[in-house]
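hiii so my PI (J.) wants the whole complex modelled not just the main chain, which honestly fair. so below is everything: two entries, each one labled with what it is. i double checked the lines twice but i was tired so who knows lol
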Amino acid sequence: MTIAYQGEILFSRYLDATGKAVDTVPEWAEQPDTLVEYYRQMTLARLFDSKAIALQRTGQLGTYPSMLGGEAIDIPTAALMQAEDVLIPYYRNHAMQVMRGIEWRDVLLYWGGDERGSANPAQGQDLPNCVPIATQCLHACGVAAAFRIRDEKRVAVTLCGDGATSKGDFLEALNVAGTWQLPLVFIINNNQWAISVPRAMQCGAPTLAQKALGAGLRGEQVDGNDVIAVHQAVSRALERARAGKGPSVIEAISYRLSDHTTADDATRYRSNEELKAAWEREPIKRLRNYLHDRGWWDENRETQWQQTANARVQQAVQDYLATAPDSAGAQFDHLYATLPVQLSEQRERAIRQAEPGGRHHE
Amino acid sequence: MSESMTMVDAVNLALAHELEQDTDVVLLGEDIGVNGGVFRATAGLLERFGPHRIMDTPLAENLIAGLAIGMASQGLKPVAEIQFMGFIFPTMEQLIAHGARMRNRTRGRLSCPLVIRAPFGGGIHAPEHHSESTEALLAHIPGLRVVIPSSPARAYGLLLAAIRCPDPVIFLEPKRIYRAVKQPVSDNGIALPLDTCFTLREGNDITLISWGAMIKETLEAADQLAQDGISCEVIDVATLNLLDHATLLASVSKTGRCVIVHEAPHHGGMGAEISATLAERGLLDLKAPVARVTGFDTIMPYYRLENQYLPNSADIVEAARQTLEFV
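here's the output for the full assembly
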């Protein structure tokens, strides 16, 4: 017998859990600008996250999925994408969408039960949040295929969780991306938990990245708590895709430090010890230590930045709470390109019912 | 300049016309390239328009729908073929959870101008899963148009309209009449209106309502009834969502009697929706209960018994007579 195929999945990490370099950091990470900006964005995301959860707990926001623990994956990815690229998010990529143009207020609107949260024209051709699992991976292939059909040097970037890799949609997406060599980057935020089901119960393969190999894609694994490692992997994948060298899968190993959503209680299914250990590896502290060691960040800057970030989040909350619900007619106005005559009567009824006392036909 | 052609030729002609007119139109599906589609609906298009626009996909229907939605979100106008309607079910999540909602959930920032074509219905002695009519499943979904032609000319004009429609359209092609008749079709690029019933024959005594392949049996029934001096109005619904209530109600207000004919099962079929609309909004015009001539509420039998399942013109004539006799 001969070997018909052999593949390997490489893992990369530059910073250990304490922020010490364990490998030679790339040149850009020897300069403060990019990493300080990443730090600002990551802490802003975390601040927003805690505010959103507080709003939910006080009945001012609907069910909300936290970003906690995924910051080192989302922030560099959004920063490295070009404006003309297209983001196809799942439901945990709030900060990425803000970095690509929408307002934090829009994130609150979406999770506060208002379709206008996905309507900001600043979002361009980016797709809205995707709540069904892994279905967005197929849209990403369609988006990337559109770029190829039109011969545009743009890249589609899509994210999903570890649970999503169990779905046919994910595998069908990898399969077509490999077959057509699409300009596409798949990023798996492997945060170890799909609600209550741990990574080990999702898949028998030692890595999720190796699913790429079965579909003819590049696959690699990075420490998803290490913003430098993620930056490097995403840069490589974007460059390859833009140069027509095909799609990649990046499995970023992180940990979901939060409950699945505000409707979940993770203490039902995972231990405090595990969570405590995960907090030791979390991405923000690691980066802050690195920045402190280099003299690029200090308590004074931290205090100033926290004030700025707080003000932004407060403003977003104010804007959100000040936004009146949409008109009852809006559900009809955007269902089709033009309002069909068949719906005009229902539309009028909806508007009438929404008026004070309108449901009682007094 | 009209050429006499079959429905499947008319589908091909409409696809070629739009591919020629609009570079945003692309085709994707299984075996649609070199093979030209299992029914040859896309024959010759790969040669004319190239592999970037005529795309054979890997064999996965869910993928086809998801790809089409992604393409449509970027302004392409994908026309996807699902080889048989029996294989449309993997596309349902994509169509319902995404395609139908894209415009609404982004308040018009993005839209989904796609067409999913699928041959459907019984009567060609096909294997299991190749003969069902599940149009009501799709017509139930807000945001999805469901369009069914019943002749070569209407296939051409309605498919042009479906491709030009800025919203998603499920275009179901009744394969029993794919090649049953030829009709002159002019490649004039003129679309027929969507959301509009076609009155194929005017009459005063009773309204016969149907769509797709069953239009053939319905017209035959109208011919038989005409021999007894019964004047039937025959309506081809053509777009099942959005339903043209006005035409249906106007006809029944004239005739006062109505038979609805479809291949699909009785329970929860589109006949129920039409019948309920007539009851809600035309009850005082009705002189008799609305009758439905439909498939049974069973699993469609394999082909040795499929003609026992499918309604025929005698069933329609009998239902019409009972409706006419009701006092």
